Amino acid sequence: MREDYEAEKSTVYHWATITAGRYGRSCGWFAGWWNCLAWLLGAASTTQIVAAQTVSMYAVIHEEFVTKQWHVFVTYILITWITCLIVLYMNRALPSIEMIGGFFVIAGVFISIVVCAVMPYVNHKAYANNPSVWKNWQNQTGYTSSGFAFVLGMLNGAYAIGTPDLVSHLAEEVPHPSSNIPKAILAQFVFGFLSGLFYLIAILYGISDFSAVLDSSYLFPLAEIYRQAAGSNAGSVGLLFLAFMPTFLSCIGCNVTASRIFWTLARDNATPFSHFFANVNGRTHNPFRAIVLSAVFCTVLGCIYVGSTTAFAAFVGSYVVLSTLSYLAAILPHLVSGRKNVTPGWFWMRGMTGFIINGVSCAYIIVFIVIFCFPFALPVNAKTMNYTSLITGGLSLFVLAFWFIRQSTYVGPREVVLDAHVLAKDAF
Questions:
Q1: Tens of pLDDT along 261-294?
Q2: Residue 194: C-alpha distances to residues 15, 124, 244, 246 (Å)
């Protein structure tokens, strides 16, 4: 559906409003808020990953170093506000920064594959055997069904939903979005699948002691994997840096996306203090206040991390469920309405093909939303419980309550006002 709407209609918030017909205002409201909350939590999650990477790189070099929660917190806060300042004051440079990130992704994957494939041979160390890479399966979750343990573990891969979703939220800032957005998404999937497959094969063969990886004191498991594959701490840090750079730059993208979604909702009178947050700064040519709000939100979640990693994980772990719920709010009405509310675009799927793909998508989302709410391992206690259902339900109740407060003045998706066109003008 991305290609079926021009710039201002190229987010899931707008799709749900259109596909649901006469129920579009309410469906769009929930889709927009679920997606906004998902990206705010996703920004916090990505920042925590980068903070863990940074602390792990330091720990690899200083073997006597003992990692504490406050180390990660301080790093987390620094990264949050550094990326916020970049987004605020380097708007013109963002395309170039993202190009640098793309370079590090491609170069980092290639170098990491080569190092993990070659260095064990150079260091005269044994590779992992074929069965351990392709066949052997260790179910340590406590669930009796290995198949269920496998699909539950797909939560990590499900974070990749942010990759196609992110680019759609920048549709107002790219030329010819109706054709370029789907092309960008296709390129992401093709490159991501191939690079991810070869990368996983390389690092799995580079692991010489799987138990050491599981028992590692590093917050970032790749630190120990790279240490084994490269054969030295310095080699591990070098490879971790190649992973750090694109991940750090992705924090910028998450901040941009989260703030743009909130700004879009504010523009349509769907947020508290809508008029205040709908403002586009005339000097920086971006939604300055919404960007700062995104950073403040991440900072508050970081404070929760210091008090309880379980509570922090409960919030950021809800990203996938909230994000997929927002897509369900757009795809399911599209399917139920017979796909008649959408004007065909460049890549329209004709006939039964579209119905089948939409139906499978809805079934997949519903099933995995339930699965991702299960505890990650058994037995369960208060610390290991998966609170995703609680967080998602609580936030949804907030969205519902606010709907009753704002439904009379909520205007729904609309055209970008002329003074906001500086966003698109300034993006290149």
A1: 999 999 999 999 999 999 999 898 899 999 999 9
A2: 30, 29, 20, 18
Kind and range of the H or E run holding 428: none
pTM, 2 dp: 0.86
Residue appearing with tokens 């309880």: 308
Residue 59 tokens read as: 């720990």
Structure-token pair, residue 128? 């992992």
Q: Which of left, alpha, beta for 285 (phi over 0: left; psi -120 to 50: alpha)? A: left
Q: What is d(CA 272, CA 302) in angstroms, rounded to the nearest whole number?
A: 23
- What pLDDT, in 10s, does the model give residues 27-86? 999 999 999 999 999 999 999 999 999 999 999 999 889 889 999 999 999 999 999 999
Query: What tokens does 179 get?
Result: 């054709």
Helices (H) and strands (E) in the chain, counts: 19, 0
Residues paired with 281 in a beta bridge: 286
Give pLDDT tens digits for 345-356: 777 788 898 899
Of 5, 4, 14, 1, whose CA–CA distance to 265 is shortest? 14
